[in-house]
């Protein structure tokens, strides 16, 4: 198996479980235990901020131990975390193990982009990132649909509240399968990091210039996303009364949009340029986000999920590229972690706010705020990232 394929397989397994299963059904699981949207928001927000914490720990530890060992630690923590959330009913313990799950995921999450850059040449980089994005999106589609089907099947055999924990138990074993591709991964990064700058001095570069401007943009978009995206499944289940299987299908459709976007992005970016692609697609996604807030039937809802997801996430391979090129080679792992932190910490805060708004005002109100934040974030990006610059470093150096 090629190094790129090993890296992508690790990402597919971990991301599919987190994005396709854990993030989709944990809110429903917590509601099934009798808790309100406020607790749902807290559980999801702790998981999100913990991803940021795990990413920062990974930035430091990977410079000392290498990515292979830190990803191994992450996989173990993910398995422990998802098992705790599965079978514990105390809200404090659910939050604790959601945090452990998030910290664990932060290790592979913040490693993948750096590993892809270090194992690809500049000419093939957009294609490699698109392949990774399409693969993880397909994995997430299959995970969402498969989990929805299993939950429905288990619900007929066991008590309904036991069906999600049983699926999570299966996911814990699947996470451990990631050790197979990880075992053959060549840890090139630790060798190069022996000549790297001091870890903490790297913050000076990351928190200045274009890097800082990107972090600001990412923070705004992350805050807006946290108001609605983590609650999509709860919104479908408890506001629109859609069953678990259809929830899985609709959420899978949103991930199918990522696949379509990932396939199209190399061609669209050649025509429009990276920055224009990001701006145009984010703006075009907003009407479909509004449509989700005011559903006109399950078919229109599914189409809106598909198109919003395609447009808003089509630019993710480009965004990942742009963020890592704003810093020098030796600070890429740190930049990846700071980007993760800026997004996940703000998402964690906005999840708590969204849980309160949905429980006390309406499910629709957070969507209005998200639209405003997406517009502001897109304006910030357009103002600061008009000129393309080539990536520095990589396998061809």
From TrEMBL:
Its membrane topology: Multi-pass membrane protein
Bilayer-crossing regions: 7-28, 40-61, 73-94, 100-117, 129-147, 167-185, 214-235, 247-268, 280-307, 365-382
Domain Major facilitator superfamily (MFS) profile: 1-389
Record keyword Repeat present: no
Keywords: Membrane, Transmembrane, Transmembrane helix
Molecular functions per Gene Ontology: transmembrane transporter activity
Domain of life: Bacteria
Protein name (Swiss-Prot/TrEMBL): Transporter, major facilitator family protein
Source species: Cetobacterium somerae ATCC BAA-474
